[in-house]
Amino acid sequence: MLDWFARAKRDLPWRRTRDPYAIWISEIMLQQTRVAAALGFYERFMKRFPTVASLANALESDVLAQWAGLGYYSRARNLHKAAKAINGEFPNRYDALLVLPGIGEYTAAAIGSIAFGLPYAAVDGNLLRVLARLDNDPSDIGNPRARARFTARSQELLDPSHPGDFNQAMMELGATICVPKAPRCGECPVQKYCAAYAAGRQTELPIKGRKQTKVEIEVTALVIFRGDRMLLIQRSSEAGQMPGFWELPDTQTLQSAKVGAEVGQVRHTITHHHYRYTVRLAEWTGKLPPGFAWKHRNKLDETLLTTATKKALRKC
Ligand code: SF4
After folding, report:
1. Annotated catalytic residue: which of 27, 89, 187, 204?
2. Among 20, 151, 247, 258, who pairs with 306 as Cys (CB 3.0-4.6 Å)?
3. Domain residues for 284?
4. Final residue of a domain: which of 155, 171, 199?
5. Are residues 109 and 249 in the same domain?
């Protein structure tokens, strides 16, 4: 695996450093974002916040603005909180990493092994797939007990003298060769050890628990102008998704609006929620309800907008 990784690894900016801060940022970005999509965000984020101190001293709104487009904003909030908690030297022990906001076992093992050479296997969905196939193991990888077993197995396989490279090699194998739908077994460096390949079952594994049912949601989003200003509503600070972000009102949040012509439709998906926004021009007169504000059209670039609202505004 180490020889193969040395030859085949993709040249990625976070692989050119052992700076735990840079590795941490990349690991958090890559949790829900593909490498190709994360690259530009990573470069920009590191330029804006090159050290843990610069991130700790930033305003939360600046951190969220740099994160805009990556989704799952709790990641950015936790990065900010953790940077404040670090307050000095980056922790170099697994247990000290694990107590930071947003750092679970996988991330602690990834940062610990890559930046500090700590012998912890980093187990994520990619690695579970590779392990299930290597051992031809039909256990449900969503089941906590099976996960614990897979984690113990990966710890057994880990090369303790090169834990960082070994973890990255396994991740790379899962990301580029042992991919979910059509694994490229012909190019696989561990094909001769792979029990699923020997049994011809590689595409049947891993077994995953029941998927969350898709939920379709229809929303009528309202574009209301008063001169050069547009009416927006801010999500409350307790909102589960994107608290503090601004968005277009809709027929639920502004029931008394006079709804006019359609300007287009946009779709937006958050996990298993599939939203279809019908964007309509509307008129509204009255006192501003709490949470609403008129924003000048030239200032929208500086306003923290939800991605769905940005998509809707592109239709106008
Ligand atoms: Fe995955 Fe195929 Fe390699 Fe087995 S042989 S680990 S299924 S790519």
Report:
1. 27
2. 247
3. 215-313
4. 199
5. no
Specify the pLDDT at position 250.
Answer: 94
Asked whether residue 158 falls in the same domain as residue 276, the answer is no
Residues 36 and 176 in one domain: yes
Does ligand 1 come within 6 angstroms of the Cβ of 188?
yes
Give the model confidence (pLDDT) of 67-80 as tens digits.
Answer: 988 988 899 999 99
Ligand 1 centre and the CA of 174: distance in Å? 9
User: Position of tokens 């579970």?
Assistant: 128
- Say yes or no: 99 and 154 in one domain: yes
Our count of domains for the chain comes to 2
User: Which three-class secondary structure state does DSSP give residue 308?
Assistant: helix
At residue 240, the pLDDT reads 67
Among 181, 191, 193, 203, which residue has the most ligand 1 atoms within 8 Å of its CB, making it the best to mutate? 191
For the question of residue 27 being annotated catalytic, the response is yes
| Token code pair at residue 36 | 């190709």
Confirm if 271 and 243 have CB atoms less than 8 A apart. no
Q: Which of 230, 239, 241 is nearest to 301 (CA)?
A: 230
